[in-house]
Structures are given as C-alpha cells and as structure tokens.
User: What shape does this take?
Amino acid sequence: MPDTADHYRYTPKKAPISILHTHRQADYSRKYVHMHNHTEMLFITSHSDALIFNNGNRHAVRTPALIIHKAGSYHYTDSSSNGEDGYSSDCIFFDMKYLEQVPEGFLHSRELFHDDCMILPLTDAETVAFGEWIRLLYAQEGYHKKMLFLLLIILDEVVRLRRERQTVCLNNPDNYIFDVTQYLMTHFSEPLTTGQLAQQFHVSVSKINADFNRATNRTIKDFCQGLRLEQVCRMLSETDDPIAQIAYSCGFSSESYLIQAFRRHTGTTPSSYRKKCRE
Assistant: This one.
C-alpha cells in the first residue's frame, strides 16, 4: 500500500457531470491518492503500463483501458508511458443521483457501479470510438441534460463490452469503511470521537481503527484533519470570511489551532495562502 500521508486529497465536484482531459510527459509518474463525491470514469487512451489503486487494492494493467471508481473510494493511477506521446486520458465525473431517473432502456447501466473499481481493457479501435463520443461531451460542456444523454450512450456501450470480455473488479473486504468515509465526508466539521463513530457503525473502537487504517493507510483523526484543511483552503480562496470564523465552521477548536495545523499541512499560514490565491 502506498504512503498517502503527503498525497491524499478530498476533491469534491460541484457540477452534476463534468469532464477533464489530462496529458503528461512520458517520464511523468505521481501517486496522487484522492477521493471525491462523484463516480469517476477514467479512459486512459495512451499505451502505458498503469498501476490502479482503489481502497487498498492494487492492480497492474496495460492500457488503453477504462477504469471506473465508485464515489467515495480512495484511488489513484500511477502510469509510466513508454510511448513518444506520453500519457493521455479523459475523465468523466458524474453524480450517481443524476442517473436515478433515466429511460428504462438504460437501467442496465447500473450494473457497472456495483464494485469499488472496475477495469475494462480497450482495443485501439474501441478507444477511437469512445473518443468520438467524448469529443461530443466536451462540445456540450455545461449543458448537463445533453451531457447526460451522451453519458448514457457511452455507458450502454461499456455494458456491452463488459458482457463480452473479462474485467477486473476491485473491492475492499471491509465494506463498511466505505460508509464510514461517506459519513465523515459530511460530518467532518462536527466534534466526533472515535468512540462515537464506532457506536454509529456498531463495532468496537479497536476494530474501526484497525479496519480504517488497513483500508486507507491513515488514521481516522488524520482523515478528518485532511477533510477540514481541504475545506479551509476552499473557504480561504472563495470567501472573505474571517479566519477565526473559518476555523470554527471547519471543526477547529480555535483560530490558533487552525494556524498550527495549516502551517504543518501547507508550510504557510492561512493569511499567506489567501493572499497568494488572490494574486
């Protein structure tokens, strides 16, 4: 399991559906363990050797390939491309609630999201075909209903391919930890104790601590601290709220405690961070 201490991020998505293109040089390789509140469909379109990490599980795959990460799962892709064009990918993020009311003919697409992670190898021809639909998605960015229609077409084709060939599915045996992380993502600003959390999920304190650490390589305290600091960063860059107010709203007991934690996390103070964001 990778050391996530310096690379973990919680990166929530605001739009119900969005898309992101990434291109990196051939020698680029970075473990960026993160979690967000949307399902992620990662199309790696370049030829590369990739290591897929999801909730403590790892799997090596030769790309091109499609990787689907369930919302709330820790994941990253470590890729070393041996091609001249480097690493390229297109990533679709969407809120599963957005798929709750879809035409009956597309309901079967839900079978794609039962696992923490699904890996589907793709041929070059399939990559090109998906690329055409993805280009249309980019063209409709911001028009969420049109993007949803195109997403359903893509999901329908993924279902067909999955039924034709072998896929790799990754799942964490401590499934309740997924629910724990989801709970913490919405309650991190509250004064929670590990004892209260254990009681909430009907397990002992020692078990929840051990299972959480095994699944995430982090303690519950560090996880909550990371969520709080990510929220602090967003509020510093997006609002004019006083630092003391931000501290209390994000679950810190005082402004001075926030400043100490923020300096350890970022190497700078909240005031300096805010100033740099607005330069």
Q: What stands out?
A: The longest strand covers residues 39-54.
